[in-house]
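Fill in residues.
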């Protein structure tokens, strides 16, 4: 059982300051730079940090239960299997799935999308069928469909964005047609931070007979999601953005869809019976999980999801909303700085991140100089090259927050950013 640090329960901190009650759980955040400055990590959208509870869960597995799952009669295999499948049950509960059999473990969200493209896409789509995407998608939600289009002749269409960096619903409705077979879109953009209106997108897609895949990598750790309430068809998540280990992710899909889909990979574990000329497949979800799985990583992800559940996604969302407002206020005060995507005032439910451009200064230079002060932010195209081309830039800088972030860290970042921008302008 993964439990929170006792300090969370007994903390006398102001109720809104969630960070003060959880930071002790994250050993990496206590480290300092070589010149004795505190580490300020503002790159949570790229990968989240891991609490000690997750590290301990993985260590326990490797120290006490290390064995292959589903195949052994001995006690180590039995315990490993129990922990592995318990993580699947936790993941199912985390997204509100009807059953753990609707959760397919993958290496990451990219593999989960590829699974849908290869299995459902190859078996379902024909020349002239359309897949509707958006221009804000991560490459992981573009490239698999491009490959699918090459294989099947299906047509890819892309919904645009509004002037304030949100999904253009008018354009979405205009491009949706009886030829649309799938709508695949990000829930929260990792660059714009906008939260796409699934409550409008999904019913409209279903009305024309299309399925909907939701890339929830940037939303699962920040707000409660119920796939049944959403009426989604597919949803993907990534462990390392959920306070869990890398090399682990999952696909949720409606059971009827998974039953109809052919296997993605062949090999051990995903079979029922093997003959020299044919094979039969295991029951869900195992028919999609060929070979030895990432057992320790699954255990770690299960511990991470349990940790987030104990804190409470509503509490996380409320604290991060306060942090995001403060981040925007501090960045907007810097001359020549432009933030991409809607403001918290324009969209209160937006993501806890700010992607920005600074007139006359390259994003990579900003990130490199700020890093020298112990502040970690992201720079580049954030795996969203088409979106950056739309804005006419090759790179941007991004500060992304978590429930472990503090107001003081945002202040320190803003002050360092302001002086860095001044320095770069003076020496350009």
């Amino acid at each position: 059982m993964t439990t929170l640090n006792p300090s969370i329960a007994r903390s006398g901190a102001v109720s809104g300051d969630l960070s003060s009650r959880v930071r002790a759980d994250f050993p990496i955040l206590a480290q300092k730079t070589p010149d004795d400055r505190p580490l300020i990590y503002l790159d949570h959208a790229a990968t989240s940090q891991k609490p000690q509870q997750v590290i301990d869960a993985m260590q326990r597995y490797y120290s006490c239960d290390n064995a292959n799952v589903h195949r052994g009669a001995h006690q180590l295999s039995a315990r490993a299997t129990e922990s592995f499948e318990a993580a699947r049950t936790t993941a199912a509960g985390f997204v509100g799935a009807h059953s753990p059999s609707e959760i397919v473990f993958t290496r990451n969200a990219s593999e989960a999308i590829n699974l849908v493209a290869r299995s459902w896409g190859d078996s379902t789509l024909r020349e002239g069928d359309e897949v509707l995407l958006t221009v804000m998608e991560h490459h992981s939600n573009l490239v698999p469909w491009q490959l699918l289009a090459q294989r099947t002749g299906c047509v890819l269409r892309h919904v645009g964005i509004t002037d304030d960096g949100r999904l253009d619903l008018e354009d979405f409705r205009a491009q949706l047609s009886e030829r649309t077979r799938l709508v695949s879109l990000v829930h929260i953009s990792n660059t714009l931070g906008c939260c796409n209106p699934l409550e409008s997108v999904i019913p409209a897609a279903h009305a024309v007979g299309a399925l909907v895949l939701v890339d929830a990598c940037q939303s699962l750790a920040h707000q409660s999601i119920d796939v049944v309430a959403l009426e989604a068809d597919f949803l993907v998540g990534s462990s390392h953005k959920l306070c869990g280990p890398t090399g682990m992710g999952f696909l949720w899909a409606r059971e009827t869809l998974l039953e109809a889909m052919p296997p993605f990979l062949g090999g051990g574990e995903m079979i029922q019976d093997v003959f020299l000329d044919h094979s039969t497949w295991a029951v869900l979800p195992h028919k999609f999980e060929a070979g030895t799985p990432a057992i320790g990583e699954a255990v770690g992800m299960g511990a991470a999801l349990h940790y987030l559940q104990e804190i409470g996604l509503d509490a996380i969302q409320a604290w991060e909303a306060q942090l995001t407002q403060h981040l925007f206020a501090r960045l907007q005060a810097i001359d020549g700085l432009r933030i991409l995507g809607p403001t918290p005032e324009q969209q209160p439910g937006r993501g806890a991140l700010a992607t920005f451009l600074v007139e006359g200064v390259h994003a990579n230079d900003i990130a490199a100089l700020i890093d020298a002060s112990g502040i970690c932010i992201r720079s580049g195209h954030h795996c969203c090259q088409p979106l950056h081309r739309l804005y006419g830039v090759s790179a941007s800088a991004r500060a992304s927050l978590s429930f472990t972030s503090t107001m003081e860290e945002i202040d320190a970042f803003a002050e360092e950013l302001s002086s860095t921008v001044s320095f770069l302008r003076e020496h350009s």
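The longest strand covers residues 180-186.
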